[in-house]
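As a warm-up, study this chain.
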Amino acid sequence: MDERVIGRSGQRASVVGLGTWQLGADWGDVDDKEALAVLEAAVESGVTFFDTADVYGDGRSEQTIATFLRARPELDIFVATKMGRRVDQIPENYVLDNFRAWNDRSRRNLGIERLDLVQLHCPPTSVYSTDEVFDALDTLVAEERIARYGVSVETCEEALTAIARPGVTSVQIILNPFRMKPLREVLPAAHEAGVGIIARVPLASGLLSGKYTKDTVFAANDHRTYNRHGESFDQGETFSGVDYATGVEAAAEFAELAPEGYTPAQLALRWIIQQPGVTTVIPGARTPDQARANAAAAALPELSRDTLTAIRDLYDQRIQDQVAGRW
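Now compare it with the structure written out below.
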C-alpha cells in the first residue's frame, strides 16, 4: 500500500490506516479474538498506521494493540493514541501533571516507553489557544515520553488554530463526502504548514456504507443509538452530525455513484484519499472482512472528474446546510 509522510515528523503511514474505536467500546460488543483478527487482517492488507485513544474501552483498545504487537515483533506499525477525555472537559484539566499521568497510563497499556504520536482528544476550544498546553506537550517530547504530538479536533476553526502551532505534527479531523468543509481552508493550511491530516469518521459512522435503512436498530451500547443528538459527546462524531433519516436517504443516492468494482464504503474512502493534503484515512472495522475491504480502497483506480462532481453536488444539495455551519 502507498504510504505518505505524516507532516513534519518524517514518519510514514499507509494511506489507509485503522481506527480502533470499534475495538474498545461504543459500537456494541466485540470479543478479544475478533479484535485481534481485525488487526491481523489490516496488517496483512498493508496497513501500517493504527489510531487509538486511552478512553476507547477505558484502555482496552490500547491493550489489544499491545497484545497484537507483542506477538508480531517483526512489524513496523506506527501507533497514534489520544489523551484528555478521561476527566471533566474544562481547560483547567489540560496541565502537565495530568499529561504525565495520562501518558504513563497509555505507555503501560501499549507496553512501550515512548509513544509514537499523542493527540489531544477534542479538548475544549480554548485549549488550542493556550501556550502553556503546548509548552507541556513540548516537555513530554523533551522527557522522551512521546516522539511527537498532534490534535484531534471537532471544528475547522480549532484545526486552523492548531496548525499555527510550530510543534503540531498532525491534525485529526472529520472528513468524508458528508463533511466537506475542511477542504476549503484546513487542508490547504495544513499543507502549507507541513502538518499531516488524519481523516477520521470517513464513513459517517457507517452511513456511507449504504447498509442502513430508516428501520435499522443499533445496540443500546452503540453510540449510533445513544448519541444521535449529542447526548454524550459532540453530535458530529455520530453520523457526522447528519440527521439519520436524511443521512440514510443521501447515502442511498451516494451508493448509486459507485463505479463498477467499488463498494459504497470504498467510494467514500477513495474520495478521501484523493483529496490533496490528506495523509491517511482511518476507517474502523468490526470484522476482518471489513478491514480488508477498507484497505483495498487504496488500490482502486482514481475517481473520475464526473464522479467527483456528482459527489459534490449531492453534498451541496442534501447535506451542507446541516453540517457546514456547526463544524
